[in-house]
Specification:
It is built from eight helices and eight strands; from the N terminus they run βαβαβαβαβαβαβαβα. α5 links the parallel β5 and β6. The two termini are 20 Å apart. It is α/β, with parallel strands linked by helices and 215 residues long. The radius of gyration is 16 Å and the shape is globular. It has a six-stranded parallel sheet with strand order 3-2-1-4-5-6, sandwiched between helices. Strands 7-8 form a two-stranded parallel ribbon. It has one domain: Rossmann fold. α4 packs parallel to α5.
Protein backbone atom coordinates (compact mmCIF):
# COMPACT_ATOMS: atom_id res chain seq x y z
CA UNK A 1 0.00 0.00 0.00
CA UNK A 2 1.39 3.39 -1.04
CA UNK A 3 0.44 6.80 0.37
CA UNK A 4 -0.36 9.07 -2.56
CA UNK A 5 -1.44 12.70 -2.88
CA UNK A 6 -3.28 13.68 -6.04
CA UNK A 7 -2.75 17.43 -6.43
CA UNK A 8 -5.49 18.79 -8.65
CA UNK A 9 -7.60 15.81 -7.64
CA UNK A 10 -10.84 17.71 -8.26
CA UNK A 11 -10.17 17.98 -12.00
CA UNK A 12 -11.20 15.34 -14.51
CA UNK A 13 -7.77 13.72 -14.86
CA UNK A 14 -6.91 13.92 -11.18
CA UNK A 15 -10.24 12.45 -10.12
CA UNK A 16 -9.89 9.59 -12.60
CA UNK A 17 -6.38 8.79 -11.40
CA UNK A 18 -7.47 8.94 -7.76
CA UNK A 19 -10.42 6.64 -8.43
CA UNK A 20 -8.19 3.93 -9.89
CA UNK A 21 -5.60 4.25 -7.14
CA UNK A 22 -8.29 3.84 -4.47
CA UNK A 23 -9.66 0.79 -6.24
CA UNK A 24 -6.12 -0.67 -6.25
CA UNK A 25 -5.94 -0.30 -2.46
CA UNK A 26 -3.60 2.68 -2.14
CA UNK A 27 -4.08 5.40 0.47
CA UNK A 28 -5.08 8.58 -1.37
CA UNK A 29 -5.36 12.21 -0.32
CA UNK A 30 -7.06 14.70 -2.63
CA UNK A 31 -5.23 18.02 -2.84
CA UNK A 32 -6.83 21.19 -4.11
CA UNK A 33 -6.78 24.97 -3.76
CA UNK A 34 -10.53 24.74 -3.13
CA UNK A 35 -11.39 22.90 0.13
CA UNK A 36 -15.06 22.67 -0.83
CA UNK A 37 -14.34 20.93 -4.13
CA UNK A 38 -11.73 18.69 -2.51
CA UNK A 39 -14.18 17.64 0.20
CA UNK A 40 -16.84 16.74 -2.37
CA UNK A 41 -14.51 14.53 -4.42
CA UNK A 42 -12.85 13.01 -1.35
CA UNK A 43 -16.19 12.04 0.18
CA UNK A 44 -17.29 10.44 -3.09
CA UNK A 45 -14.12 8.34 -3.16
CA UNK A 46 -13.95 7.68 0.57
CA UNK A 47 -10.55 9.32 1.04
CA UNK A 48 -9.04 12.30 2.87
CA UNK A 49 -8.44 15.79 1.50
CA UNK A 50 -6.30 18.83 2.25
CA UNK A 51 -4.85 21.99 0.75
CA UNK A 52 -2.16 21.21 -1.83
CA UNK A 53 0.94 21.73 0.33
CA UNK A 54 -0.50 19.79 3.27
CA UNK A 55 -1.73 16.99 1.01
CA UNK A 56 1.78 16.53 -0.43
CA UNK A 57 3.52 16.35 2.94
CA UNK A 58 4.78 12.93 4.07
CA UNK A 59 3.60 10.99 1.01
CA UNK A 60 5.38 8.24 -0.93
CA UNK A 61 4.09 9.60 -4.26
CA UNK A 62 2.73 13.02 -5.23
CA UNK A 63 0.79 13.20 -8.49
CA UNK A 64 0.28 16.64 -10.04
CA UNK A 65 -2.71 16.81 -12.39
CA UNK A 66 -3.29 20.47 -13.18
CA UNK A 67 -3.59 22.51 -16.39
CA UNK A 68 -0.41 23.85 -17.94
CA UNK A 69 -1.34 27.41 -16.93
CA UNK A 70 -1.29 26.33 -13.27
CA UNK A 71 1.73 24.01 -13.39
CA UNK A 72 4.50 26.29 -12.13
CA UNK A 73 2.41 27.94 -9.42
CA UNK A 74 1.23 24.56 -8.13
CA UNK A 75 4.69 22.99 -8.13
CA UNK A 76 6.14 25.99 -6.33
CA UNK A 77 3.41 25.73 -3.68
CA UNK A 78 4.17 22.08 -2.88
CA UNK A 79 7.95 22.12 -3.41
CA UNK A 80 8.82 22.38 0.28
CA UNK A 81 6.39 19.59 1.23
CA UNK A 82 7.62 16.92 -1.16
CA UNK A 83 10.55 15.53 0.80
CA UNK A 84 11.68 12.17 -0.63
CA UNK A 85 8.45 11.50 -2.52
CA UNK A 86 8.31 10.56 -6.17
CA UNK A 87 6.57 13.38 -8.04
CA UNK A 88 4.52 12.39 -11.09
CA UNK A 89 3.74 15.39 -13.27
CA UNK A 90 0.99 14.83 -15.84
CA UNK A 91 1.17 18.31 -17.37
CA UNK A 92 0.70 18.77 -21.10
CA UNK A 93 1.51 22.20 -22.60
CA UNK A 94 -1.86 22.82 -24.22
CA UNK A 95 -2.40 26.47 -25.10
CA UNK A 96 -6.09 27.23 -25.79
CA UNK A 97 -7.76 27.77 -28.10
CA UNK A 98 -5.48 25.87 -30.52
CA UNK A 99 -5.19 22.68 -28.48
CA UNK A 100 -5.01 20.49 -31.61
CA UNK A 101 -1.71 22.17 -32.54
CA UNK A 102 1.55 21.07 -30.88
CA UNK A 103 2.93 24.04 -28.92
CA UNK A 104 5.89 22.85 -26.85
CA UNK A 105 7.56 25.53 -24.68
CA UNK A 106 10.97 27.00 -25.47
CA UNK A 107 12.57 24.79 -22.82
CA UNK A 108 11.55 21.74 -24.86
CA UNK A 109 8.71 20.33 -22.76
CA UNK A 110 6.63 20.88 -19.65
CA UNK A 111 8.65 18.17 -17.87
CA UNK A 112 11.83 20.25 -18.04
CA UNK A 113 9.93 23.28 -16.80
CA UNK A 114 8.78 21.20 -13.84
CA UNK A 115 12.37 20.21 -13.07
CA UNK A 116 13.39 23.87 -13.14
CA UNK A 117 10.76 24.65 -10.49
CA UNK A 118 11.33 21.61 -8.27
CA UNK A 119 15.12 21.41 -8.55
CA UNK A 120 17.44 18.65 -9.78
CA UNK A 121 17.23 16.52 -6.62
CA UNK A 122 13.49 15.84 -6.74
CA UNK A 123 12.53 12.36 -7.96
CA UNK A 124 10.54 13.68 -10.94
CA UNK A 125 8.60 11.41 -13.28
CA UNK A 126 6.09 12.29 -15.99
CA UNK A 127 3.20 10.09 -17.13
CA UNK A 128 -0.52 9.90 -18.04
CA UNK A 129 -0.22 12.37 -20.94
CA UNK A 130 -2.11 10.26 -23.47
CA UNK A 131 -4.88 8.53 -21.55
CA UNK A 132 -8.42 9.90 -21.51
CA UNK A 133 -9.61 11.31 -18.19
CA UNK A 134 -13.14 9.98 -18.59
CA UNK A 135 -11.83 6.48 -19.29
CA UNK A 136 -9.76 6.63 -16.11
CA UNK A 137 -12.85 7.68 -14.19
CA UNK A 138 -14.59 4.40 -14.99
CA UNK A 139 -14.38 0.71 -14.15
CA UNK A 140 -13.82 -0.60 -17.66
CA UNK A 141 -10.53 -1.74 -19.19
CA UNK A 142 -8.60 0.93 -21.07
CA UNK A 143 -7.07 0.08 -24.43
CA UNK A 144 -4.15 2.46 -24.02
CA UNK A 145 -0.51 2.34 -22.94
CA UNK A 146 0.93 4.88 -20.51
CA UNK A 147 4.43 6.15 -21.28
CA UNK A 148 6.55 6.93 -18.22
CA UNK A 149 9.60 9.21 -18.35
CA UNK A 150 12.30 10.03 -15.81
CA UNK A 151 16.06 10.35 -15.35
CA UNK A 152 15.56 8.46 -12.06
CA UNK A 153 15.36 4.86 -13.26
CA UNK A 154 14.07 3.30 -9.99
CA UNK A 155 11.38 5.99 -9.73
CA UNK A 156 10.39 5.34 -13.33
CA UNK A 157 10.06 1.61 -12.59
CA UNK A 158 7.91 2.35 -9.54
CA UNK A 159 5.49 4.40 -11.63
CA UNK A 160 5.31 1.69 -14.30
CA UNK A 161 4.22 -0.71 -11.55
CA UNK A 162 1.72 1.84 -10.25
CA UNK A 163 0.15 1.96 -13.70
CA UNK A 164 -0.27 -1.82 -13.58
CA UNK A 165 -2.06 -1.45 -10.24
CA UNK A 166 -4.47 0.94 -11.94
CA UNK A 167 -5.34 -1.55 -14.67
CA UNK A 168 -3.12 0.15 -17.25
CA UNK A 169 0.01 -0.96 -19.06
CA UNK A 170 2.83 1.36 -18.09
CA UNK A 171 5.88 1.44 -20.36
CA UNK A 172 9.24 3.07 -19.76
CA UNK A 173 9.70 5.85 -22.31
CA UNK A 174 13.24 6.78 -21.27
CA UNK A 175 14.65 10.04 -20.00
CA UNK A 176 12.74 13.09 -18.85
CA UNK A 177 13.60 14.88 -22.11
CA UNK A 178 11.63 12.24 -24.01
CA UNK A 179 8.48 13.48 -22.28
CA UNK A 180 8.30 16.02 -25.12
CA UNK A 181 7.10 13.27 -27.47
CA UNK A 182 4.14 12.27 -25.28
CA UNK A 183 3.28 15.88 -24.50
CA UNK A 184 3.17 16.68 -28.21
CA UNK A 185 1.16 13.56 -28.98
CA UNK A 186 -1.69 14.79 -26.79
CA UNK A 187 -2.53 17.49 -29.32
CA UNK A 188 -2.49 14.87 -32.07
CA UNK A 189 -4.88 12.68 -30.08
CA UNK A 190 -7.24 15.61 -29.54
CA UNK A 191 -7.21 16.13 -33.31
CA UNK A 192 -7.86 12.41 -33.89
CA UNK A 193 -10.78 12.47 -31.46
CA UNK A 194 -12.41 15.30 -33.37
CA UNK A 195 -11.60 14.11 -36.88
CA UNK A 196 -12.56 10.46 -36.41
CA UNK A 197 -15.30 10.95 -33.78
CA UNK A 198 -13.26 8.91 -31.30
CA UNK A 199 -14.25 8.47 -27.67
CA UNK A 200 -10.85 9.15 -26.13
CA UNK A 201 -8.25 7.86 -28.60
CA UNK A 202 -5.10 6.37 -27.10
CA UNK A 203 -1.88 4.67 -28.13
CA UNK A 204 -0.80 1.02 -27.93
CA UNK A 205 2.71 -0.25 -28.65
CA UNK A 206 3.07 -3.62 -30.40
CA UNK A 207 5.75 -6.33 -30.62
CA UNK A 208 7.30 -5.52 -27.24
CA UNK A 209 8.41 -9.01 -26.21
CA UNK A 210 9.49 -8.07 -22.66
CA UNK A 211 6.78 -5.53 -21.90
CA UNK A 212 4.27 -6.12 -19.09
CA UNK A 213 1.16 -8.02 -20.06
CA UNK A 214 -1.78 -5.94 -21.22
CA UNK A 215 -4.32 -5.81 -18.35
Amino acid sequence: MTSIAVIGGTGALGKGIARRLVRAGHTVTIGSRSPEKAKEVAQALGVSYAANAEAARGKDVVIVAVPYASQQETLAAIRDSIGEAIVIDTTVPLVPPKVMRVQLPQTGCAALEARDVLGPDVRLVTAFHNVSAHHLDSDHAIDCDVLVFSDDVPARATVVELCQDMGLRGLSGGSLNNSAAAEALTSVLIYMNKTYKADGAGIRFTNLAQAPAIP
